[in-house]
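Annex B. Sample input.
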Amino acid sequence: MTETPPADADGEPTDDSERGRLAALTSGLTAGRAALYALLAGLVVFYLSPLEAGLMTAFKTTDAFTHTAPIAPPGPGGFTTEPWKTAFATLKSGLINSVILAVPAAALSALFGSLAAYGLTNLKWRGQVPIVLLFVAGIFIPYQAVLVPLSRFFAIVNTQQLLEPLWGLPLMEPYYASLVNLIITHTAYGIPLTMLLFRSYYKNFSTEMLEAARLDGATAYTIYRRIILPLSVPMFAVTLIYQFTQIWNDLLFALIIIPSGSGQAAVVTLKLNELTGGIVQTFNTQMAGAFVAAIPTLIVYVLFGDKFARGVAGQ
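Annex B, continued. Sample output.
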């Protein structure tokens, strides 16, 4: 039975009760727990100090960066936002191209991965196991192994010529053909992993529920659209966030597939190279550019982080 703490005439806890509660809390703080808190605090400082140094550098003038420690804040007269303005002006077109690339590529790889997982998990047909093994093998193919075949494939298949009727439409530009090539590549490369994630998720679905739908006359497509797809929202959040981050940060495929690795179709990871500053290194502008390039992925995690956590936990 819980004892009621002593109270004064107005029913408020007395100083004795407050002191007792404080003593109980401090008595629970053992040496081991204090060491654990100190270790956690040290890890937080260790992992966040590079970010803090980068942020401080991005707000410093070149002279302040030279005469202060990277982790120290800019002193009087050393604060400036000019690196951020320069970085955003340089990366603006790359940010737009990366959005045009990452959003459809992430959505398509998640959708096709879901459809493949449904067909390989909740439908019964011969030859499923070899197909699953092929998908799993696709996860382990390194980027470097497909660079030459990819460059040869898109040298033979002229996407810009195939999509020529589209370039006359409003907001459509011929250089988008390079982004289409990247969307196709990232979609194909992402399907094996998304299929595996969806397959592990669909294995937990009730077979009785799906069998009841079949007995009611529902086709495979109807079951997917009416039952599987609505229940897949948590896993779609996981795959979309993961794929968006991977595609946004990709440099290798963009460097190979986009002609000359730059130009109008350059994505943000390629445009970062334009902030190097030539002979004189502008570290403040480079750090500002790195943060500008990372902002979209941070926004995605902040907005959908809870859904990502629930999807990973299978809730």
